[in-house]
Design brief:
- The protein is mostly beta strands.
- The protein has one domain: Jelly Rolls (Sandwich), CATH 2.60.120.
- The chain has 3 helices and 11 strands, in the order βββββααββββββα.
- The chain has a 6-stranded antiparallel beta sheet, with no helix packed on it. The chain has a 3-stranded antiparallel beta sheet with strand order 8-7-10, with no helix packed on it. It has a two-stranded antiparallel sheet with strand order 1-2.
- A hairpin with a 5-residue loop joins strand 1 and strand 2.
- It is globular.
Length: 198
């Protein structure tokens, strides 16, 4: 199954302050993650400050892939997620450093020998994840939630993975907003678990 290409329309202002179409077409950055074949990032837009600068600046999505949003910024992307395979579930954890390095955040991976899924990770952000097409299972440390089209997950910096157990690809839309952990949560996350560090 192949999903349709994403069309992006970006607006701006002309010299007289009138609204114009700055660009209309396919996304300039669409990248498959080599360490997880079939996983495709479709970079839509990002901002790098709050409040966001409203201007006619160049496209912020043309650089290297970076998983989290910029400090005090946001990031919007679609991700196509292939079905989990027995080989990936058995041996995928060994590839996660490479996978998260490809998206500019090797430190995001939290996978350990006893993790519930090879893609366990966390970022210090608020993420809105929307299932557009297909089915997904949200994996947390001690819970799982089945998701269908129209399901929205508000991810508040928690350790998680996206497991595709449906046998067909899933497309999700993500909006990531830079955040800072509450002091109590930050302290709890800094305490090593029994049997090893987090």
């Amino acid at each position: 199954m192949t999903f349709p290409a994403i069309r992006r329309v970006v607006t701006g202002h002309d010299a007289d302050g009138r609204a114009v179409v700055a660009s209309d077409g396919p996304l300039p950055t669409v990248a498959e993650i080599a360490a997880i074949p079939g996983t495709v990032f479709h970079e839509v837009w990002s901002t790098s400050e709050t409040p966001a600068a409203v201007n006619n600046a160049p496209d912020p999505t043309t650089g290297a892939l970076v998983l989290p949003p910029p400090k005090r910024g946001t990031r919007m992307r679609f991700v196509d997620i292939p079905p989990d395979t027995p080989e990936f579930l058995a041996h995928g954890a060994a590839k996660m450093h490479a996978a998260f390095s490809e998206v500019g955040d090797a430190a995001a991976s939290t996978v350990k020998a006893d993790s519930p899924h090879p893609l366990m990770h966390r970022t210090e952000s608020i993420d809105y994840g929307v299932v557009i097409e297909g089915e997904m299972t949200l994996i947390l440390d001690d819970a799982e939630v089945a998701l269908a089209p129209g399901s929205v997950v508000i991810q508040r910096g928690t350790n998680h993975a996206w497991a595709n157990r449906s046998g067909r690809p899933c497309r999700m839309l993500f909006v990531l907003i830079d955040g800072t952990y509450d002091a109590a949560i930050a302290a709890a996350l800094a305490v090593p678990e029994q049997g090893g560090a987090r």
